[in-house]
Amino acid sequence: MGIFDPIDLKGKLTLWAGAVAFLMITVIPASSSAGNVEQGEKIATTRKLGNCVACHYLPNVESPGDIGPNLVEAMQEYTMADRDDVAQWIRDAREFNPGTIMPPFGTNKILTPEQIDDLVAYLYTLKK
Ligand code: HEC
After folding, report:
1. Which is the closest atom of ligand 1 to the Cα of 100?
2. 69-89 pLDDT per residue, tens
3. Residues 77 and 18 in one domain
4. Are residues 96 and 110 in the same domain?
C-alpha cells in the first residue's frame, strides 16, 4: 500500500486523463475562439488569404466586389448567439446553400480554424 500501489496509480492516471480532457474541452476552444480582430481584417482584405472582398463589400477597401451580400449590412442581422452560423458560412457555406459559389474556406483548408475565428471577431466589429 505504498505510493507505488498499482491500483492507486491507476486511479491517479484516470484523474489526470479526466483533468486533461476537461482542459481540452473547456479552456482551449474558449481561448482560440476569441479571435484577433486585426488579423481578421487582414485575412478578409488580403488577396492571398481570405480575399473576401473579391465578392463582398467591406469598409476601407478600394473597389470591393458585389457578387455576395454587403457584409456590413449582413452583420446587422446577426447577434452574438449566431457566432457559430457566421463561422459556418466561412467554414463551408454549402451547409446553408448547397449551390453556393462561396468557397468552403474551412473544409478545403484554405483558412485555419484560428483564421476563421479571427474573421468572425472582425466581422462582429462591423455591427453598429
Ligand atoms: C466567390 C465569391 C465569394 C467569396 C470569395 C466569399 N464569399 Fe461570402 N458569400 C458569397 C455569396 C454569393 C453569399 C450569399 C449566399 C450564397 O449565395 O450562398 C455569401 C455569403 C456570406 C455570408 C452570409 C451573409 C448573410 O447574408 O448572412 C457571410 C458571413 C460571408 N459570405 C462571409 C465571407 C467571408 C468572411 C469571406 C472571406 C473569407 C467570404 N465570404 C468570401 C460569395 C463569396
Report:
1. 18
2. 999 999 999 999 999 999 999
3. no
4. yes
